Structures are given as C-alpha cells and as structure tokens.
C-alpha cells in the first residue's frame, strides 16, 4: 500500500534542467512548485551582478550572474548578451542534462477549458519524446497523440517520423506581439485555447518565442544561441526568433522535427510597447531581409553535426547579411565564439573539442 501511494517519479527528473533568465526575485516559482520542484533549475541573473536574487526555499538550483559568465568564459563571454533575456542561453551551455525547458519569470500556470491546472513541463516532455512528421502534413495534426492516427493517404514509409528536437509552447492572456501590434491592440488578450499540436513542415520558418520552450539539448543545443542583443547592440527582442530561424534551418537539414501548440502557460505582464519599439525598430526593417535569407540558406552535405551547420550558417550570415548592416558581421563573429565556448564547456567524451576540426585526444 505504501509503495502504491507513493508519488510516481516525475518524467525525466534527472535528465532535464529548467533555465530561467531574470532580474528579480523568483516568487513566481511558488505557483510552479508542484511541477518544478523535483527538477534542477539554472537561473541566469541579468543586469547588476551585485543585486541579490531571492529564490523560494525548497528548490534545487544554481545561479549565475555576469561575474560568473565572465569568469567561466573569459574573452568568449562577449557572445552572451547583457541586459536582455538572451542571456538565458548561457544556461543551455552550462547544463549537463539531455533536455532543457526555459520559461520567463512573468509566466504562470494556465488552466485548460475544464479549469484544471496545466502541467506545461509534462506536456513538453511528451512532445519531445514522441516523433515529428516534417516531411508530410497530417491533417489530424499530431498522429501520436491519444485518439489520433495517420489519415488515409499518409505514406506508410513516413509514419515512423523523426526525432523531435524542439517543443514550442504557447501562451494565454498577454499575446507575444511586436510593438506596433501592441500599440494598436493594447487591450487584446489571447483567450483561445486550441487543443492541438502540430509539426512545423520542412522548409517552413516560424517566429519562435522563448518564454515557454523545450528542446533536446543533445540533438540541437549548439544551435540554440539567442544572438547578440540588448546592451550595446542596435537590436533587441529578436533573440529567440534568431535562434528559431537558425534552429529550423538546421533541423530541416539534419532531418529533425519541431512541434508547436500545447502546452499553454499564462503570460501575465505586457511589456512597454514604446520601450519595445526602440529595441525592435531596426529588426522590423531587417526582418524583411532576414526571412528571405533563411528561406534560401543551403547547408552542405558534409555539415553533419549541429556545430558544423552553425559555423556554416555564421559564414553565410557574414557574406550575405553583412551587406544589410555591419551588426551582422559582429553577430557572425559571436556565433563562432558561441560554438567555441560551447565546445570548451561540452567536450565530447574521450577528447577535447575544437570548433573547426576533430577532437584532440
């Protein structure tokens, strides 16, 4: 009886880290305690490193501030954004787990239409542990969900699917809008709960939001670089989208999948649209060049690892987007630095990684 009443072990308890970027006390974790407490947290403190961040008792966590980033990466710390939530990708780099879930500190537990609390982390895990179908669209969306299957006419040769690298969750309440849309729709709220998960087709880009996102770090981690944004840079609020565009190009090339849809979280705080407009201003123009660039990217056949793909992507960013603005030359440099830093902190077993060559025994 005792064993029957004991709570089941949470899925992937020892294989997943939760990464949270923040500038404030993490009181929001109290609402997530039933779902997050069994897992290890990596907290990346942005802004003033002398400020003390309070974390509720009972959570297993490690906290890194800018001093830690500088100490651990040395000159390569230049690739980690400052005063921007893009700093979260440092947490991806230092994690030693297979999976990552990242969430913003203004996101809370949402309820499904029946009024039940949504365990977002559990749903992301289900998404990551089931295959994706990027090569042929299933009109019943995710065929691996309970009560669904492949529809008539779906090729049997494709029904096994491919590994899922990314699970992109959504949000109720405050929509993830850009500044111009915020300004013209200041009171709009997302109340539509769509009970669906779908694989984003191969060759299709999407605007990735980092506030409710999970991924297989071993499959795609080195591509999850949130760019060079924030303090000292001419652009902000494009960090997660940059990572999403790079990641989607690479997952397409490597035959991996990206899912979007469930789970939902409750996004509680609308950021200031005028502040956002200053951050996004260049990006609103540049994205008209960025999207065609990513749509036309071709990676060579010998780019068989995420790192090789990413370094090739950095080369093409410099060659083609450097003409749009000098910032993209700087971004290309930081992409290379990111891979070098990643490989230093995550050497392959039995060797020390080098970004542009085989590991040294």
UniProtKB/TrEMBL annotation:
Glycosylation sites: 152
Entry annotated with the keyword rRNA-binding: no
GO BP: any one term: cell wall organization
Enzyme class: isomerase
One annotated Gene Ontology cellular component of this protein: cytosol
Domain of life per record: Eukaryota
A Pfam family assignment: RGP
Site (Required for activity): 152, 159
Localisation: Golgi apparatus
Catalyses which reaction(s): UDP-beta-L-arabinofuranose = UDP-beta-L-arabinopyranose
Classification via InterPro entries: Nucleotide-diphossugar_trans, RGP, RGP_fam
GO molecular function ontology, one term from the record: UDP-arabinopyranose mutase activity
Entry keywords, A to Z: Cell wall biogenesis/degradation, Glycoprotein, Golgi apparatus, Isomerase
Record-listed E.C. numbers: 5.4.99.30
Family (UniProt): Belongs to the RGP family.
Role this protein plays: Probable UDP-L-arabinose mutase involved in the biosynthesis of cell wall non-cellulosic polysaccharides.
UniProt name for this protein: UDP-arabinopyranose mutase
């Amino acid at each position: 009886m005792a064993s029957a009443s004991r709570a089941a072990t949470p899925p992937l308890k020892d294989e997943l880290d939760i990464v949270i970027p923040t500038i404030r006390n993490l009181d929001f974790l109290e609402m997530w305690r039933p779902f997050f407490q069994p897992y290890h947290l990596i907290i990346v403190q942005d802004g003033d490193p002398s400020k003390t961040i309070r974390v509720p008792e009972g959570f297993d966590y490690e906290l890194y501030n800018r001093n830690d980033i500088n100490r651990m990466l040395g000159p390569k710390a230049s690739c980690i954004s400052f005063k921007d939530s893009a700093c979260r990708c440092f947490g991806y780099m230092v994690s030693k787990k297979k999976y990552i879930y990242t969430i913003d500190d203004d996101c809370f537990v949402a309820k499904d239409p029946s009024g039940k609390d949504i365990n977002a982390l559990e749903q992301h895990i289900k998404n990551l542990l089931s295959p994706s179908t990027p090569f042929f669209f299933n009109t019943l969306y995710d065929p691996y969900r309970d009560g669904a299957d492949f529809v008539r006419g779906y090729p049997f040769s494709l029904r096994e699917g491919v590994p899922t690298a990314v699970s992109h969750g959504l949000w109720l309440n405050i929509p993830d809008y850009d500044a111009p849309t915020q300004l013209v729709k200041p009171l709009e709220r997302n109340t539509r709960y769509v009970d669906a998960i779908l694989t984003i087709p191969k060759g299709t880009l999407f605007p990735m939001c980092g506030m409710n996102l999970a991924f297989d770090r071993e499959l795609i981690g080195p591509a999850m670089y949130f760019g060079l944004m924030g303090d000292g840079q001419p652009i902000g609020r494009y960090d997660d989208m940059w990572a999403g565009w790079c990641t989607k190009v690479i997952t397409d090339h490597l035959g991996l999948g990206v899912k979007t849809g469930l789970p939902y979280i409750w996004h509680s705080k609308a950021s200031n649209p005028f502040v956002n407009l200053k951050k996004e201003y260049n990006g609103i123009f540049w994205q008209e060049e960025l999207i065609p660039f990513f749509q036309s990217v071709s990676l060579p056949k010998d780019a068989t690892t995420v790192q090789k793909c990413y370094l090739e992507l950095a080369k093409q960013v410099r060659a083609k987007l450097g003409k749009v603005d000098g910032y993209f030359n700087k971004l290309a440099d930081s992409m290379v630095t990111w891979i070098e830093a990643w490989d230093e902190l995550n050497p392959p077993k039995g060797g020390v990684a080098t970004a542009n060559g085989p590991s040294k025994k």
